[in-house]
């Protein structure tokens, strides 16, 4: 390592390098004069002398920049001095490389057909047509062109190896420009070629679902990959295509992993249910089941089970094993509950029969009967049972007795109420009749003219042509102070009915007096006046 560069590590353990003289950092150890082979040292010396102290550096994301140690200038663009130097070195290297390759290739037999003499332009066109016919694109390096087309006579139409390399570069640029007119087609072709390069790396296990773009970019830069080198797309666009490819790999990986997990879960479920169910039976908790499972020799020897995590096994336990255990417990509880229910019902029936043999009324208390039943099997059997307790069943009987007693009491109270109501009604009607009779006697004693009018009305009430106006008579009667007690009966009877009752009562009173006078007249043989005979005659006709 150069004495100017010091190897350091980040918090995550990644190695990087720090130059304490220039305060520069780098993820890779810069190639300095001390770290290069002898041949490369000479090249570095030459470059440094001709490029005016320009040095190339790489950022963490792989982007290159240039620094002039003399002027202190930094730039993203490659300085002209470096470009000129690289072109000079490249031509020299190409000539050396191509001359050595041509020597080897020329030793191979090549079948030449047709005329061998061509103009310089025709030779170039023939070489370009060779590239086009073989569908050479940006994925082909010049090394691949030489290896695949060296046996074609058109390849040798251009004698100069450097010229062939230039034509190859011009062909790729021309092809790109022609495709640029159809941007969508260009992008589609580039994406297809880009993915093809990724598939090649995938076949070599250099690309997986968790590979980062910066790793592949650095690899292609080191390999001088043509599709990456000649790409006109931005780094973010290339990264998007790359991660789209790795996303599909991740999806395939996860799908395959899930398929393996599902198959392993099916096998594990079958193993725990049918093959080795004792593992479940002797495990009371999830923790004990997992502990017994991972220590089971057959579980350890099954490679499919190695795809399962602890969470996967827990989910199997929650979804299948635990619900089955709960169902088994519920089934056992159901059977026991049915047996207990029958026994509880039988115990209640025996106890009810025991209570039925005792004298229990609405006022009986439990303490009154406990001495009689405490040693009885029926009482002992019902204690601690589900459902109604011995005390509750006793109170049910007492409540029933109370309800019967209440119904009887209600019937008696109802009869008494109706009787009282009827008596009050009869008393009310009797009082009304008395008040009407009292008014009728007063009229008989104090107003003979009104009374005679009543007699005439009563005598003609059945004659259709003569209608009695009871309302007028009611008005006359209501003027008397003696009528005031009858006002209260207007709710019970209409004014017409009250008037009719008064008239009927007056006529009755009149007939009583008339009858007594007749009897007195017969016994005393007293002669009556003509006026009295007339009145007696009217009453006789009315049969009062």
Written overview of the protein:
Among the domains are: 108-181, FF domain (Arc Repressor Mutant, subunit A, Orthogonal Bundle); 418-541, no CATH class. 65% of the residues lie in helices and 5% in strands. The chain has helices spanning 38-50, 80-106, 120-133, 142-149, 161-180, 183-203, 213-223, 226-229, 235-275, 278-281, 286-294, 297-301, 310-356, 370-373, 377-382, 390-446, 448-460, 470-478, 495-524, 530-541, and strands spanning 5-9, 15-19, 24-26, 54-58, 64-68, 74-75. It has a three-stranded antiparallel beta sheet, with no helix packed on it. The protein has a three-stranded antiparallel beta sheet with strand order 4-5-6, with no helix packed on it. A hairpin with a 5-residue loop joins strand 4 (54-58) and strand 5. The longest helix has 57 residues, at 390-446. 11% of the residues are buried. Residues 342-400 form the FF domain.
Tell me the structural class.
Answer: mainly alpha
Order of helices and strands: EEEHEEEHHHHHHHHHHHHHHHHHHH
DSSP E strands, number: 6
**C-alpha end-to-end distance:** 161 Å
Share of residues in helices: 55-70%
Total helix count? 20
Quote the average pLDDT.
Answer: 76
Uncertain segments of ≥5 residues (pLDDT<50)?
33-51, 103-117, 461-466, 533-544
Describe the structure using short key phrases.
single chain; 544 residues; mainly alpha; Arc Repressor Mutant, subunit A; three-stranded antiparallel beta sheet; elongated; disordered C terminus; FF_domain; RNA binding; FF domain family protein; WW_dom; FF_domain_sf
């Amino acid at each position: 390592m150069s004495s100017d560069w010091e190897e350091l590590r980040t918090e995550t353990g990644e190695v990087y390098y720090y130059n304490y003289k220039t305060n520069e950092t780098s993820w890779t150890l810069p190639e300095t004069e001390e770290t290069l082979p002898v041949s490369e040292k000479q090249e570095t010396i030459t470059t440094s002398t001709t490029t005016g102290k320009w040095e190339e550096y790489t950022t963490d994301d792989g982007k290159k920049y240039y620094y002039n140690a003399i002027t202190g200038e930094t730039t993203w663009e490659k300085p002209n001095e470096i470009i000129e130097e690289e072109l000079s070195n490249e031509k020299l290297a190409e000539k050396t490389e191509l001359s050595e390759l041509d020597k080897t290739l020329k030793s191979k037999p090549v079948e030449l057909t047709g005329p061998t003499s061509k103009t310089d332009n025709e030779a170039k066109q023939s070489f370009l047509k060779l590239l086009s016919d073989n569908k050479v694109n940006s994925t082909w390096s010049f090394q691949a062109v030489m290896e695949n087309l060296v046996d074609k006579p058109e390849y040798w139409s251009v004698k100069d190896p450097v010229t062939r390399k230039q034509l190859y570069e011009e062909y790729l640029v021309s092809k790109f420009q022609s495709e640029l007119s159809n941007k969508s087609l260009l992008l589609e072709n580039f994406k297809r070629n880009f993915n093809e390069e990724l598939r090649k790396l995938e076949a070599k296990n250099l690309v997986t679902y968790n590979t980062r773009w910066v790793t592949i970019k650095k690899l292609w830069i080191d390999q001088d990959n043509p599709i990456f080198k000649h790409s006109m797309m931005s780094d973010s666009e290339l990264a998007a295509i790359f991660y789209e490819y790795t996303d599909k790999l991740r999806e395939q990986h996860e799908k395959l992993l899930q398929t393996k997990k599902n198959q392993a879960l099916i096998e594990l479920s079958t193993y725990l249910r049918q093959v080795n169910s004792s593992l479940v039976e002797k495990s009371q908790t999830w923790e004990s089941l997992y502990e017994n499972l991972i220590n089971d020799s057959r579980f350890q020897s099954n490679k499919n089970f190695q795809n399962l995590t602890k969470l996967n096994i827990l989910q199997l336990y929650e979804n299948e094993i635990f619900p089955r255990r709960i169902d088994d417990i519920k089934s056992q509880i159901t059977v026991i509950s049915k047996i207990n229910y029958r026994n509880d019902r039988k115990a209640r029936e025996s106890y009810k029969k025991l209570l039925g043999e005792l004298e229990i009324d609405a006022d009986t208390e439990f303490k009154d009967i406990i001495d009689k039943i405490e040693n009885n099997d029926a009482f002992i059997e019902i204690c601690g049972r589900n459902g109604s307790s011995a005390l509750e069943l006793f109170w049910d009987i007492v409540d029933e007795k109370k309800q019967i007693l209440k119904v009887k009491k209600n019937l008696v109270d109802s009869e008494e109420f109706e009787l009282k109501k009827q008596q009050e009604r009869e008393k009310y009607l009797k009082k009304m009749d008395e008040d009407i009779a009292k008014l009728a006697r007063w009229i008989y004693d104090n107003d003979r003219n009104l009374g005679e009018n009543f007699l005439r009305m009563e005598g003609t009430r059945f004659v259709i042509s003569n209608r009695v106006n009871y309302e007028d008579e009611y008005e006359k009667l209501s003027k008397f102070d003696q009528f005031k007690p009858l006002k209260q009966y207007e709710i019970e009877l209409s004014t017409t009915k009250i008037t009719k009752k008064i008239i009927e009562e007056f006529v009755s009173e009149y007939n009583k007096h008339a009858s007594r006078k007749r009897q007195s007249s017969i016994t005393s043989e007293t002669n009556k006046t003509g006026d009295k005979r007339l009145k007696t005659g009217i009453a006789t006709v009315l049969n009062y």
